[in-house]
Amino acid sequence: MFKRGLFLAVLAGALTGAVLLYITRPQPLPDDALAGLVADAARGETVFWAAGCASCHAAADAKGDEKLILAGGQRFVSPYGTFVAPNISNDAITGIGAWRALDLANAMLRGVSPGGSHYYPVFPYASYARASLQDIVDLRAFLATLPADATPNQPHEVGFPFNIRLGLGLWKLLYLRDGWVVTGDLTPDEERGRYLVEALGHCGECHTPRGALGGPDLSRWLAGGPVPAGTGRFPNITPAALDWSEGDIAEYLSSGFTPEYDSAGGHMALVVENTARLSPEDRQAIAAYLKQVAPVP
Length: 297
What we know:
This protein is mainly α. The chain contains twelve helices and four strands; from the N terminus they run αααββααααααββααα. The chain folds into two domains: 37-179, no CATH class; 181-297, Cytochrome Bc1 Complex, Chain D, domain 2. The protein has helices spanning 2-23, 41-51, 53-57, 101-110, 125-128, 133-143, 168-175, 188-200, 204-207, 246-255, 266-275, 280-290; strands at 75-78, 81-84, 225-226, 233-234. Residues 39-147, 188-294 form the Cytochrome c domain. This is Cytochrome c.
């Protein structure tokens, strides 16, 4: 009786493990997901700046055209370890020069590498999952116009158990969603702003607090939270705390100056460098969207 019970327990454990491995496996897009889409590198440049690619993947001290050399190397400290931005330049060996548009789409929308493994969500695919396939195709075309750089990638400094990437499938099961956070009857301008904030701009990655497993608390969307490195806080940018006018917000995203004549600092200064390259209409759309976010004290 004991042996039979032990056998059944082992069998049940094995079946449970097999099911868990199956439902948390990397799930790339279908091979024909991009069929019929025609790339436009000019539109891809807008996607590039809206998505903030250079802010993480260029050198930390890069200026001007150096922002377009996406050799990686920036370090991001978190409670789970230190993550190092990879080379996403046009180099075919150390960068993504050999990637297809579908490879980029799998990375940005599903968090899956060309080799079929999970990416860590420090790469903000939980936000990019809301992006359109057309924008990903256009972005890939623009990235192909940028310089190649052979700087080797550096490994992340992540200890046990977070170095076991299989567990990231469970994280995705819990937190990876492609639906909008702010819903309801929005104007076309507000919908464009929602797309820029919730998808490409991935503003919630910093401005939304996270739970113990690092997943965003969407009930406190954009309400601010601690900086992962352990010092300081990202501000609450819901209407409960951000009382600027739409014009003030749009101006800040253009010049970096607040209504009080203070200026953006830290990583936000890099964000403003990106939003300043967007059209005035896009900056206005972001401002209009932020006024529709639920106020969170």
